Amino acid sequence: MRATVIHGAGDVRVENVPDPKIQLPTDAVVRVLRTCICGSDLWPYGSMPESETGERIGHEFLGVVDDTGSEISGLQNGDLVLAPFVWADNTCDFCGEGLQTSCRHGGMWGVGDVDGAQAEAVRVPQAQGTLVKLPVGADSELLPSLLTLSDVFSTGHHAAVQAGVGAGSAVTVIGDGAVGLSAVLAAKRLGAEQVLLMGRHTERTNLGREFGATDVVPERGDEGVARARELAGGDGTRTVLECVGTKPALETAFGAVRDGGVVSRVGAPQYAEGPIGFDVFFRNITLTGGVAPARAYIEQLLPDVLEGRIQPGRVFDRTVGLDEVPDGYRAMADREALKVLVRP
Question: What whole-number distance in Å separates Cα of residue 321 and Cα of residue 303?
């Protein structure tokens, strides 16, 4: 089959690889109908050392079950299923706490002998716990929005939940990428009354306004912090959702949050140390967030997508075939595309 392999910074290829097969009785094989390129995929695309063998890549997909192991029940060939961006048994103690990202028997796509999602098919370990059956057809117009539950919308939702966003909240969202826009939509869904979106790409912030942003702050640094505080009455908002992952974004978050407030970070951190010294301590700022346990959220978010109350799939602004994935990476890295949907 054909699959995406990254060989180093800027070097993404679509290659022939062995077809996935059942290796363990808890496996399934899923034929991929939709996958996508994630903003976090751009980090290795920008910095990965050269590799002769390369690594499989991609962690968001939905598709049709083609085969199942002998211990799988509740799934059968032909079922349309969604996979969260980590696989998990969904039965261990961590999974029972809604922390499938710490599953004792789980792992990441594209690591070791596990397939990456940007491919024609994927072997799914712990398939019964990982996969969520979807009650729509393979030709449903809802597939893009359903795919966002695999990662990007669940991640935006996680940012808002961890920050305690609820009815009447005032929220600042840092970042106008797909996760930031998802966080805007998630905050609005949870009842936020004021949502400040810090971003400067007009096409993206326009979508952010349609998702529920009440104000847009294009300024950066100290100027951006001052503007966000001004819009929030001078003291900043009680909740700030940091959806970028850089140290300057975290610094902005601490600047924009109200004393006693919460900063929730879900941008994959590209730093080892942050500004969490005495100033943050003295202001009683809470830092939370982390990697989103998408599997814990999918079933609670699913009805709003199925019934059309939210359309998170609007973050996809370009669709490519599998052979065009390298150009999709380039387009996202060059900010020509917000998020690229892939139809193998």
Answer: 29
